[in-house]
TrEMBL record:
GO terms for cellular component: plasma membrane
PANTHER family xrefs: SIALIC ACID BINDING IMMUNOGLOBULIN-LIKE LECTIN (PTHR12035), SIALIC ACID-BINDING IG-LIKE LECTIN 5 (PTHR12035:SF125)
Membrane topology according to the record: Single-pass membrane protein
Keyword Transmembrane: yes
Gene Ontology process terms (BP): cell adhesion
Protein name: Myelin-associated glycoprotein isoform X1
Ig-like domain mapped to chain residues: 182-288
Gene3D superfamilies tied to this protein: Immunoglobulins
Keywords, sorted A to Z: Membrane, Transmembrane, Transmembrane helix
Protein's organism: Podarcis lilfordi (Lilford's wall lizard)
Amino acid sequence: MGITVACTGCRGRSWQVANSPSKTKLLASSLATVATVILTLLCKGMLTNNLDFRITVPDSITAQRGFCIHVPCSFTTPDWYKSSSEPLYGYWFRITDRQTNLEGTNIWVPGEFKASRDERQRFLKFHSTHMKLSGDPEKGDCSFTIINAGLDDWGQYHFRIDKGESYRYSFNPSSSQTHTNPQVVLTDLKKPKIIKPHEVIWEKPATFRCIAAEMCPGTKPQITWHTEPDIHPVYATSSWNTQQSNWSSTYGVDITFKPSLADDGIVLTCNIKYHFLKKAVHVATRLSFGYRPTASTILPNATCENEDQGRRCTCSFHCWPPPTLTWEVDGVTVTGNGSTSDMEVLHWAEGNAASSTLLWKGASIDHYDPFITCTATNPFGKQTVVILPGSNQTSEHHLPQTSPLSPVHANIYKSPRQADLGGLS
């Protein structure tokens, strides 16, 4: 006589624990009880190694209310699990204090039933009509999609598979795999995203892109642009869309125009209306542009004139943002505004034009021409103009190498609207 333990969840396996002779009846009875408990735990999967049951799913997914959510998911099962000839069903449940009685199985499962391809469950009380098991469990795909996500979709989820009696398994945290339950988090409607060009250059086409992402099928938003102040009537817009998956699309509208100096500081605003939500959002960006220094052909440039005090040279450039101007006289670099006993430098700027004068005092201008250059530099580049090419004569008047310039009184003009060095704000 022995004790037989049948395991309905272990592919028809059973174990028998035999009784010992009467002399050791008490000890044998105790051992049999322990063995029975161990085998029962094995049947329930409490002492088995579940490494062959694995699920890969994001820890958390964040989406906007009213938008679509696609959660990629995959799972694997041990080889023996595939021996069942029954169809493989997958079920997603939202973890709550409720329980669900699955039709056709007479099994109560913790949580609210949300999605499955098992047609027997379509009439369950908490069956979601906007959440779909988009993956194919037969291929190890447990991905799911939520359309027009609402507050009743917020929370943690767990996945369960069923391939007939004795072939049922729920993916719950265990010592071998702690993460099995994805968390769905919903947020309020966010502002749209504007993609800006790397830099905006005067008279060069610039394209700004406004994007509405993760849109559900058939929920195309209305996207428009406007400028403030409306001083740039010549621009072109183009609409586009891309499909991320069967359940999600991205829409956008591009605006392209050639900016001028007068456009610096204008505000570009993207407006998006979500008709299905009866809501609208907008986002704005301020335009500032830049281009490399160019020698002016209108203002005095690359000239030198003799004066009573010495020789005064002038250079002028146009660019944005205003440049740093640097003089070089016979290899000596001079920057900033100021004066010494040998020279005086003055810079000024107005709008996108910048000029500078260099007064070389007391030089022997009748017999020696120094090599003089003027360089303008800003974040987009630099340009150098040669003021005097120099001569083969040796200067008897040497410039100080380290003598600092002392400030001179001068009016410095700047544009009333400063452009960002990065090109955009």
